């Protein structure tokens, strides 16, 4: 049996009207330092988001999510933060923010395969039974 690896994750939330504190879970960011693994799975459910705020700026939210994805991946278009180490990028990505795109508090766990754990968390926390 493969050794268990420690990981941390945060749920990505879209809070269309910050003052109301209502949100839609939109993704998961997972970091496993032992494997230098940092990845995210993001998917915006526009229908659920519009139910909270019919006037939400979906284009702006998509741009913010793409920027988050680029930083997470260390992509050249991710700006200065994308050039940091995976651990530094993870901590920057999950730092508390009072913007429309936010993350939950950190959660920890053990896994043997960070990529499949990311997918499992996404399916459980974001997709749910009605979005598979």
Give a count of the beta strands, DSSP E runs of length 2 or more.
5
End-to-end separation in angstroms reads 29 Å
Structural class: alpha+beta
Approximate helicity band: 25-40%
Number of helices: 4
- The number of domains is 1
Largest sheet: 5 strands, antiparallel
Apparent shape: globular
In terms of per-residue confidence, which ranges show pLDDT below 50 for 5 or more consecutive residues? Answer: none
N-to-C SSE series? EEEHHHEEH
Task: Report the average pLDDT across residues.
Answer: 93
Radius of gyration computed on alpha carbons: 15 Å
The proportion of residues in beta strands is 25-35%
Q: Could you characterize the architecture of this molecule?
A:
With 132 residues, the protein is of the alpha+beta class. The protein has one domain. The protein is built from four helices and five strands, in the order E-E-E-H-H-H-E-E-H. Strands 1, 2, 3, 4 and 5 form a five-stranded antiparallel sheet that branches. A hairpin with a 4-residue loop joins strand 2 and strand 3 (37-42). The protein is globular. The model has no long low-confidence stretch (mean pLDDT 93).
């Amino acid at each position: 049996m493969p050794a268990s690896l420690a990981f941390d994750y945060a749920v990505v939330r879209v809070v269309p009207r910050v003052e109301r504190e209502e949100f839609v879970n939109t993704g998961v960011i997972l970091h496993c330092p032992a494997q230098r693994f940092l990845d995210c799975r993001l998917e915006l459910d526009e229908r659920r988001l519009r139910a909270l705020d019919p006037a939400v700026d979906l284009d702006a939210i998509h741009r913010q999510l793409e920027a988050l994805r680029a930083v997470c991946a260390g992509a050249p278009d991710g700006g200065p933060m994308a050039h940091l180490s995976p651990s530094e990028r993870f901590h920057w990505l999950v730092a508390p923010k009072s913007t429309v795109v936010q993350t939950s508090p950190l959660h920890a766990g053990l896994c043997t395969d960070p990529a499949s754990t990311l997918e499992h968390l996404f399916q459980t926390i974001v997709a749910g039974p009605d979005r598979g």
